[in-house]
Amino acid sequence: MSTLPVATTTSHRWWVLVSLSLTQLVVVLDGTIVNVALPQAQVSLGLTDTERQWVVTAYALAFGALLLLGGRIADYAGRKRTYLVGMIGFGLASAWGGFAGGAVDLIAARGLQGIFAALMAPAALALLTVTFPSGRDRNTAFAVFGSVAGAGAAVGLVLGGVLTEFADWRWCLWVNVPIVIVTVVAGALLLRESRAEGDNRYDIAGTLTVAAGLASLVYGFTLAENGWARLDTIGFIVAGVLLLALFVWIESRVAQPLLPLRVILHRVRGGAFLMQAVAGSVMIGGTLYLTFHLQIVLGFSPLLAGLASLPLTVAIAVVAPIATKLLPAIGPRPLMIAGPLVGAVGLLLLSRITPDGAYLTEVLPGLVVLGAGMGMLFVPLQNLALTGVAPHDAGAASATANATMQIGGSLGLSIFTTIYAAASGHATGASSPAALVDGYSAAFVAAAVGLLVAAVVAVVFIRGRKEDLLPSGEHVMVHAG
């Protein structure tokens, strides 16, 4: 693989880091920035609850389904070229979404954002890798890059609240445009092209089947809010399962698969990926209903709702360094069992919300406990994604971990929306605060059940000596979701 230096001077390299970190910030915050804006966007555009859900799902699904392909394109077509195309496309999609006049425009724009994010995110990580190939500077660069990724969700919640309250919900999309302009200019001036050498074939069949399979599965679960026994619901879910089975068959036979099956069939890694999907469903799907409860039921302003969601991120940020220090001493298994259990307790606390309950007593404790549990879980998950991975599969394993986070979020949100609709009486038109709270509580309970399942997965799959479970060498796992 070519490892041409991306910049020739030390100062240029750090400016490259600034530019690429801004890119990472945009990718991550766009997963949450619209959450706070959704109640106002729903009123402004007359969105149904299902359409509201797809504003989030379209981004996460497109991003997750195409992330592996985006990495291949970056390696083969050129990382700088792919990065610039992804950034420009992302900016145009953001501008279109800001001008959306209805549900179709907004959902399509969010889907395009996800597609172009799937190009620019892996390209940015690859460019960072070749810009800082080794040594202390590499460690510093990845630490900064990872910190920006970790802070992106919190930045999105607060920024979304500020823009929605003091400007307009549309600015939650338009805000990307000036950032894109700055990063595109910086990238064009500072970056140098690099690409992988050798036989570069794209797995088109694998890409089409996995994308269609996931979309069909998510859409089928979305239709389930109108009835599980309906022919269209069953048809889309069955079609999704069959297409994903076909994807696995294709990957076992092509010379250069989109996802080498050896990456996911390893017992420990496979368990970690399953748990990553559950974590995505909780962080992307489950907590979305917290924002709705704060604004629609409790009457919080968008800014206050964003700030009120921050204890979740703060708790993760506080617990994660502690888990990092514990990891070499006790190994990943205890953390991966305890983390989901603690997180499930937090969600069950949140499920006790009432229409006239106080934030400090009904919401804050659950948020803090949930954040503590997720902080315990995220640290070992990032490491186990690279357990036993050959160097040439490290990129695929890293991309798979990020992809499963997004895909888990989109699948989880579709399932939680179905549960919310049934519990709230949405299908019969009920929309009283009590009915809404019933729906939100049911979604939190469903997310808690998901975390309990994740704890069982850890018990069954995460086995072995701690020395064997933790990856060796200088592999770096950066969480982009």
UniProtKB/TrEMBL annotation:
As for subcellular location, the record says: Cell membrane
- What GO molecular functions are on record for this protein? transmembrane transporter activity
Report the membrane topology from the UniProt record: Multi-pass membrane protein
In this protein, which residues make up the domain named Major facilitator superfamily (MFS) profile? 16-466
Q: Write the protein's name.
A: DHA2 family efflux MFS transporter permease subunit
NCBIfam families cross-referenced by the UniProt entry: efflux_EmrB (TIGR00711)
What are the protein's UniProt keywords?
A: Cell membrane, Membrane, Transmembrane, Transmembrane helix, Transport
Question: What InterPro entries does the entry give?
Answer: EmrB-like, MFS, MFS_dom, MFS_trans_sf, Sugar_transporter_CS
Q: What Pfam families does UniProt report for this protein, alphabetically?
A: MFS_1 (PF07690)
Fetch the Gene3D superfamilies from UniProt. Answer: MFS general substrate transporter like domains (1.20.1250.20), Multidrug resistance protein D (1.20.1720.10)
The record's Gene Ontology cellular component field reads: plasma membrane
Segments passing through the bilayer: 12-34, 54-71, 83-104, 110-130, 142-167, 173-191, 203-221, 233-250, 271-292, 304-323, 335-354, 366-386, 407-427, 439-462
